[in-house]
Design goal:
Blueprint: H1 3-15, H2 17-26, H3 44-53, H4 59-73, H5 79-85, H6 87-91, H7 97-111, H8 125-133, H9 140-149, H10 162-172, H11 180-187, H12 194-203
Helix pairs in contact: 1-2, 2-12, 3-4, 3-7, 5-7, 8-9
Length: 211
């Protein structure tokens, strides 16, 4: 475990006893690990393509669709490759017409230089999210996932994520899942380590690990 990761979780445990209990029980998960099986090969464009394909479907199906896209292209997808393939051919791989259109729109933004997706490290969190959501098909949640897994930003709290809000409900023994605004407000107390808090909350939905 890196020193910065250890420090982040130690700080969260000091900020919030309930989070401290989660650290004791579930460990210190790496919040930046992208569980894509190496599919994106370090490409931000390919990673966002996978995020788009994975919207509202299972990870297994998302991987299947992405693998078909990669196989149709013959390599890790680039914006130029996707534009050359075209919306109809992408749809024929098994995805919806809307998602195929979203991929084309993303590729167009990247190929035209409107979105420099491979070089977003210098942008603030807010500016990076705004640049991404300007692309039709990329919502706030997808943008936040991208900032976590591709840009490795330490202070992102995707309050719109249902799983995350369910974890908050369990953590505090609430009768109902908190609303997005309430979850966002709760997360504010964990700045500047909200990404780590989110990773811990997601981990708490799983079986406790042996430490």
């Amino acid at each position: 475990m890196t020193e910065s990761r250890q420090q982040a979780y130690a700080a969260l445990a000091r900020m919030d006893r309930d989070l401290g209990r989660l650290v004791d029980r579930y460990g210190t998960p790496d919040p930046f690990e992208f569980h894509d099986g190496g599919r994106a090969s370090g490409s931000n464009f390919a990673a966002m393509s996978l995020h788009i394909l994975g919207q509202q479907i299972s990870t297994t199906v998302a991987f299947l669709l992405y693998d078909r896209l990669r196989d149709a292209i013959g390599d890790t997808p680039t914006a130029k490759d996707v534009l050359t393939l075209g919306q109809d051919s992408i749809k024929a791989l098994g995805t919806s017409r809307s998602k195929a259109g979203y991929l084309i729109n993303l590729a167009d933004h990247v190929a035209s230089g409107v979105l420099d997706i491979e070089n977003m490290g210098g942008l603030s969190d807010d500016d990076a999210i705004q640049a991404l959501v300007a692309v039709t098909g990329i919502g706030v949640w997808s943008a936040e996932m991208f900032l976590i897994h591709q840009l490795h930003r330490p202070d992102i709290f995707p309050a719109g994520d249902v799983g995350l809000r369910n974890a908050l409900k369990r953590l505090y023994g609430s009768a109902e899942i908190p609303a997005v605004a309430a979850a966002h407000e709760t997360g504010r107390r964990w700045r500047p380590f909200r990404t780590y808090a989110a990773a811990l909350l997601w981990r708490s939905l799983t079986v406790p690990v042996e430490l």
